[in-house]
């Protein structure tokens, strides 16, 4: 009996339409480029976008025609704008289940699904300053533009937020415990060249060339057999699978528990990457 009688494999033309408000897709020879956007411009971070990311990784992972993933964003910033009203809609909601689904469940699944559901080589293209670069740090290969800054501002907000959504975890894992802790508690800004020296990124590439460079690397990866590509990715992702299983949920729960204890809201005025 055919497997598709029980499970319909996702088709690019279907999910590109489903997610068109948040992502643009381009696939050639098995290489899938996903470009984040909001209304064809730079990403405006919202809870709707938040939820879409969590769903997208599972869909991409189930499409066997995807062999290498390139993830990037639109414009000259990574994620640098916020939909304030969408955040307030959830943060001020009297519905405990709604707050749980968005603040905890989706926050967990953005990272967990990226690591656990995508079983192909991943290349992150960070096209400028911004937040929520945890997916980029967890990618197999990470490229960034010269103006990228590795920084987690959570602790520096006026009310103080626990850096638990994944960026703090990446700082500890990539920089080491002492340097990672320092970066979280002081909101240290680490420039692109220093990121390269510390091993947080693999290459620093000018913006006009960075996506082409990712496609060049992806093309070289595609010269290997499917089994070689995918099994090598398993090895690349294994340390992240381990640390996420061990630590990520306590990071997220600590952030959200503190967030609700202090009755705070996201401080959008504090976080600026000009």
UniProtKB/TrEMBL annotation:
Superkingdom: Bacteria
Gene3D superfamilies tied to this protein: 2-enoyl-CoA Hydratase, Chain A, domain 1
InterPro entries associated with the record: ClpP/crotonase-like_dom_sf (IPR029045), Enoyl-CoA_hydra/iso (IPR001753)
CDD domains in the record: crotonase-like
Pfam families (UniProt xref): ECH_1
Keywords: Isomerase
GO molecular function: isomerase activity
Keyword 4Fe-4S appears in the UniProt entry: no
Family: Belongs to the enoyl-CoA hydratase/isomerase family.
Protein name: Enoyl-CoA hydratase/isomerase family protein
């Amino acid at each position: 009996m055919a497997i598709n009688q029980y499970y319909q494999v996702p088709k690019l033309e279907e999910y590109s339409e489903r997610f068109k408000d948040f992502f643009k897709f381009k696939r050639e020879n098995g290489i899938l480029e996903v470009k984040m956007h909001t209304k064809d411009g730079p990403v405006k971070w919202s809870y709707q976008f938040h939820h879409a990311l969590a769903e997208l990784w599972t869909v991409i992972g189930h499409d066997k025609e995807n062999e290498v993933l390139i993830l990037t964003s639109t414009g000259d910033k990574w994620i640098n704008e916020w939909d304030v009203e969408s955040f307030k809609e959830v943060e001020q909601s009297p519905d405990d289940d709604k707050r749980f689904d968005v603040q905890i469940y989706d926050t967990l699944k953005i990272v967990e699904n990226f690591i656990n559901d995508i079983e192909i080589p991943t290349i992150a293209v960070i096209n400028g300053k911004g937040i929520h670069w945890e997916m980029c740090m967890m990618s197999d290969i990470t490229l960034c533009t010269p103006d990228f800054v590795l920084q987690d501002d959570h602790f520096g907000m006026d009310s103080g937020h626990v850096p638990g959504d994944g960026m703090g975890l990446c700082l500890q894992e990539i920089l080491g415990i002492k340097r990672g802790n320092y970066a979280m508690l002081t909101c240290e800004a680490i420039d692109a060249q220093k990121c390269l020296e510390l091993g947080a990124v693999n290459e620093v590439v000018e913006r006009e060339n960075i996506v082409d460079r990712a496609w060049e690397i992806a093309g070289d990866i595609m010269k290997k057999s499917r089994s070689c590509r995918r099994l090598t990715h398993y090895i690349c992702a294994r340390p992240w699978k381990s640390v996420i299983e061990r630590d990520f949920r306590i990071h997220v729960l600590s952030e959200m528990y503190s967030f609700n204890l202090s009755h705070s809201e996201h401080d959008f005025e504090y976080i600026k990457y000009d």
